[in-house]
# Entry
Amino acid sequence: MNITILLRHSGIWVSNVNYEGYKVDGTVVGESISFMNLKALILAELEIGGVRKDIKIRYIVDENTCPLKIRNDMGVKLYLEVRRNEPGIGIDECGWTLISSCKKKFDVFKVRYFNNEHMCPMRDRILTKVQATVEFISGVTAPKLFNHKRIHTPQDVIEDIRAIYGNEISYQQTWRAKERALEMLKGKPSEGYEQMPRYIWMLNNMYPNSYIRMQKTENNQFMYLFITLRPLIRGFDYCRPVVVVDVAHLGGAYK
# Structure
């Protein structure tokens, strides 16, 4: 079951119960969402970098009580239970109806009955029809890829979208979204090779008299990069005459 929520943000608390000058965004969450996933969802929805900024999540039960803070999973469950029990007309009770029929061998249809009166809230008509596009998924995934040591597989992304939004996405969508998120954070792999001469120039300035050589093909394609810094060269003066050469194989987009 999905639950629609409105996000009021970028405002000022003028009192314990009054929040003014805010902006409004909307989103949809699954009923089993965790606190960390809710926080990541809000950061992605508001396009806030989760590494440098933190947020405080509050909600108002009624106009006469102070807002309650959501600090953990139990706070999320309590909020969702309050939202689930709010009075109002749901989509199932809305009277909007369209009945039509199509004749054989024709590409047109005939409207037989149409009731254009909506009784459900506007947010229920819009926010419950979430489309998980590659751009949307990449925005949700990007904050979790800041730390390169953290392993976040496509299956983890599928489970995140299912837990946060209650939507099912394909493995292909997930793979493309993760690649898009990594491109947003680190740029394209080809752009990294374009920065190689600058990297070599900085190493030569930081470590003079080092041995740094980059080999390219006749077509100006990268082959290999050999780096021996001056401090390492000096260290060989105190070592036995045994040489071990290590190699780092390419594991990215270009092998």
Remarks:
- Residues 131-187 form one domain.
- The longest helix spans residues 171-186.
